[in-house]
Structure formats: structure tokens, C-alpha cells
User: Fold this.
Amino acid sequence: MIKRVLNGADALVRSLEEEHVEYVFGYPGVAICPFFNSILNSDIKTVLVRQEQCAAHAASGYTRVSGKPGVVAVTSGPGATNLITGIATAFADSIPLVCITGQVDSRLMGSDVFQEADISGACESFVKFSYIVRQASDIPRIVKEAFHIASTGRKGPVLIDIPHDVQMDRVSGFAYPVGVNLRTYKPTVEGHPVQIKRVMRELARAKRPIICVGGGVHLSDAAEEVRRFAEAHDIPVVSTMMGLSAFPTDHPLFYGMVGNNGQKYGNRAMNEADMIIMVGARVADRSISQPDLITENKVLAHIDVDPAEIGKNAGPSIPLVGDIKHIFREFNERELEVDYSDWLDWLDGCKDDVLNAESKKRAEIQEERKLQGAREYVDPRTFIRKLSLKMDKDAVYVADVGQNQIWSCANAVMRHGRFLTSGGMGTMGYAVPAAMGAKISAPSRQVVAVCGEGGFQMTMQELSTIVQYEVPVKIVVLRNNVLGMVRQHQHFVYHDRFSVTDLSPTPDLDKLSEAYHIGYMRLETNEGMEECLERFLEKDETTLLEVMIDPDDLC
Amino acid sequence: MKRIYSILVENRSGVLCKVAGLFWRRCFNIDSIVVGETDDKAVSSMIIVSNGDQRTLEQIEKQLNKKLDVIKVKTFNENESLNRELLLIKIRYNRSNRRDIMENCEIMGAKIVDMSKGQMTIQMCDTPERIQIFMGTLRSVSIVEIARSGVVAMTKCNE
Assistant:
């Protein structure tokens, strides 16, 4: 075998191999061609998406299920700028990605040549860090650092912009660094013992404590530790949207999702509590609309790996910086004698009251509609509940953005599976590519994407990728011919002055499915739902299920 | 509330942009910013004066610390530090006001560093407050050009 002279692109591929990268999601162009040329010599598999944004979403889905940083590679200019929404989506949810963008030759940079874009400048406020590679010999160090930065501390996307000529430059040999030497980056892992003790002391004193789990619990892989702690002391748990599925939703200690889209009883639990333990949650506007209220007459213990999140939106009584898994291991080792049974009784009563009132109200509405002789539709709540119950225990449920997401959050029963959605950025079109990435990382697990037809149409071109790479994901499209979430907002705030929210006519999804050679099913009313779901989930093949819902149904 | 941030950063291209961008994106104020090299060529020093409420000022420090180009952030109030600013001011003078200007310079410790027939340039290095006072004495004079450096600051010596 002739020993080839290594160039920068080879060094890049070798570095990815050293990081045990299995998949690269991307889209080629001249500026990234050296990389896609070198990758042919590697066992790393490539997935050609149909639009760059989806490469980032697919990598995000891949990462969130596998726990390994997702890798994306696209070309310069429009390839890179198309990626921006995907990077921003990952950043908002602290998803670790390594995004590689080709760049024009270094001698041309800054002269506005064909397909040049200042991508590292454009992405500055939503990457954890970015590199512009100036010398091919720097590549192994930069890749090593990029993976380290993306996947430690508060995780997030890292961008590596590599000019075409740097990919082509010769490098003398390849040596991958063993460690990283970053004097400015040393994330805290262990929680401070004094603060841990303070949390324990306050818990012993508290009458009505509650744990609020956020996305950080997933990111730190600490669901098991948190559950053990809650169960050991019978502490009730609520969740933010990003924290969903970190705690089994049918667990007797679970009191729903909080926030303006959450359950009423979850929010009431937070309000009534005298101690809140915030775990890996940002206390952002959608989960806590009035941050001052959660500190009023309450002890707020805020646990986060990012010190900047603590005190950003609410001033905590006990700030605790560190990795959640480590901190809860510490918690679990400490003695704590408590009895919160009165509090749990109250919460159960509250939950029953709210649920009864809600189902009564819904029954009334349905009754009224029946009297009006309105057309019958599928009830999305019942549908989502049944769907999630019929899904495998470890299945991955990917919710898109909009009404479908809110219904999913409130009704999907998650036990040992994963619930994924774009919580921070609320990026429509996330579900289909993210589900594809999730299925690629765990082919044996069932993956279901649930979207509205608005979000679905934003990224439905990925059906082509799904078919090409034989990634059997299940897709549910809740169809109501409108942009439901915005329309609902216009109903409440603009008194039914509906503007630019009508999607009709939605394309014939049966013909679309036929065009992509995937299975198609349709559910018109609640009748036959069980059987329909069974057939839908039965085979491990890509199927699109169109579910007709009422445009006037509100979430 | 005013606060001074003395920041050591990696001396790399784009770092000033990243730090300034952080202030811009998060709606933090910059009253002044001064950047220069340190004795270590790989490290630059930035002195940023900002203002805001307690929570904002705390966030600025935390967000700065998150930046991977930032090596160290020191923060202090004006009264805990020595603060100096450099002023260069070019003015028009005439026979009738020349004496007054020169006297004011002498009183305030400013120096005339350049002169032509009808113009002079005054240099002053002092606290921002004293520079403001001196500028006040020039209110009736015709000003051609002003350059102010922004504040450089350093904590006072320990006991």
C-alpha cells in the first residue's frame, strides 16, 4: 500500500476517528470537499441531509439519545448560514454539537468572494466557542478541544470553520493530543460541600418541598440519581419542558410540567411549596413567568453547572454549582429524616380537582359542538396519551413546536423513554430531522415524531433522507390546516382576527407518502384509534399517520 | 451603579469583538472600554466601565467568565481603585483668552503639548471627574477636536 501524504482534511477525519465519531451529518460544497474526500478512507458514516439546518437537528437528535456529541459538516457561505438555525436551536437547549464548516481559501477571506460568509462572526452569540483554523497542523488540537468544550460543563455547540486551502495543506504526520490545556475553561463538577449541607438542612426544615427538573438532568445523565433521591424521601417532582421524561410521568410523585404551557396543578404545586430545588433549569420566562414569586417566602436552591444561570432570573437562597449527577450522588449518601405526607396528600387533592374540572369543561365543549352538529375530529389529548401508552417502553418521542408540542407535553406518558423537543428556541421543523438522528443512534428503539403540518412542511424534505438511509421513523402529522398555536394566540389576543395562519390547502399527505415510498395512514375521528395506533406502530418501517384535528381546538 | 471590570483576555483576533458583542447582545452598558497589551504578549488587558443594577453587574461578571477567551475578571468600584483617563483637546485661542487658558491648565495640571498660530492642543491625564472639571473651564473656547481615552483603572495598593 502506498502511504499517502496527509493533508489537513485527513487530519480532521483522523481526529474525528480518535473521538469515536460514527456519523457525520452534512451537505457538501466545494469548500468542504477535501473533508468529504478524506472521509471516504474512513469507517465514519455520512448522512446527506436535504437542507443544512436539518443536519444540525439530526445531529441534535443523535446526541440526545446517544449522549455523544453530534457532528455536522457543511460547506461555506449559504451552507454555513443555513446551519445557523440548527446551531442556535442546539445552543438554546445546551446540546453538544461539533459543527464543521468549509470556508473559502484563507488568502481570499475578507474579500467577499463567491460563497464566503463570516460564519464564526454570525454564530458568535449562540456557539459555546468557535475556531477559524489558520494552520493545518492545529487541527488535531482544535478538534480535541472542540469535543471537550462541547461535551463538558454546560454543553453546547462548537463551530470549527476551516478554509479550503487549510484542508488541502500538507501536515507532517498525525498525533492526537492526549489531554486539553485550556487555562480559561475549567467547569465545576463537584458541588460545594457547604452548600450541599445547606440544602439538606433546609430540606429537613421544609414542610412543602418540591424538586423541579430541567433539561440539565438529561444532559448530566442524572435521571436515575434524581429519582432515587425523590423516592427515598417522598419529595414531589415537577418538570420544565426540557426536563420531561427525566422523571416518569406516571410516577406517583410526579406533578406535571410547570410554566405557562404546563399543568395548572404543577404550577400550583410550585406556588404552594416552601422550598424549591431547581435542578438544571434556567428559570426562563416560559417555565417561570414571575421569577420573583418563586423566591418570595420560599427557599430556592438552584443547582446548575453554569454559574451564570444561577441568579440570572431569580436570586436563590442556596446557589449550588456543579454537575447534577455528582451532586445528587452526594445527596443520596446523606442522612435525611423527613415526612412530607401531608404535602403529598394536598398535592394529590389539587391534582384531582384540576383534572376533574378540566375534563368536565372539555366534555361540555364537546357536548356543545355535538349539539351544533359540528364535524367530528380526533381529540389530540386522547390520541397522544394512547399513542404514548402503545409505544415501546424505551421509545423516543419527538415533539415538534406548536399546539402539537403542548398537547404532547401534557399528555404523553413517558416511563423509560426519551421525550425530545426544541424547548429553548422553539424551532418549527425540529421533529422530523431530530427523530431521524435519534433513530440512527439507536436503531433498535422505536422513534416517533409528532408534528403539526406547519412544522412538518418546514423540513419534510428529509423524508427523502429517511428513505435513502432506511431510517424507519414514525411520523404523526396532526392536521388542522392552520398554524394552530399562532391562530390560538390570535383568538385570545386579537379577538379572532386571524392573520397569515391559514395553511389550506395542505398537500395530500397520502400522495406525498406515495411519492417518497413510505407507508401512509389516516385517522379521522376517535373511532378506531386503538387499532389504528397498533397498526401504525406494529412494523419497524417509516409510516406517516395523518390525524385530523379541529382547527378550533385549543391547547 | 458604576462598576469597573479589569479583564485579562487571550490576545487573539476577534476577542474584542466577542467581548463587546456580549455586552451588546445582553443589553449591558459600556461607558468606556480600553484595550492594550500586557507584559505577556499572549495576554491583553481590557478595562471596561459599565453601569446597571446589582443583578446586571453580577451577570456581566458571570457572562464574561463564561467566555473561553477570558482568562481573568477582576471587578471593583470606582472608590476602590485608581482611575485615570487621558484627554487630548485641540482648541482655538486668541490674544484675549490665551492667558486664562494657560492659567487654567496650570491649576488643573494639564499641559499644552502642541501649538500653532491660532490653535493649541492640551493634554491632561487625570481622573474622569477632574477631566470633566477642566473641560468645563473650556466652555467659552472654540473646540476643534477632542480625544478621550476612556478609563484605565487599577485597585489601590494593599496595606
In short: Chain A has a mean pLDDT of 95.
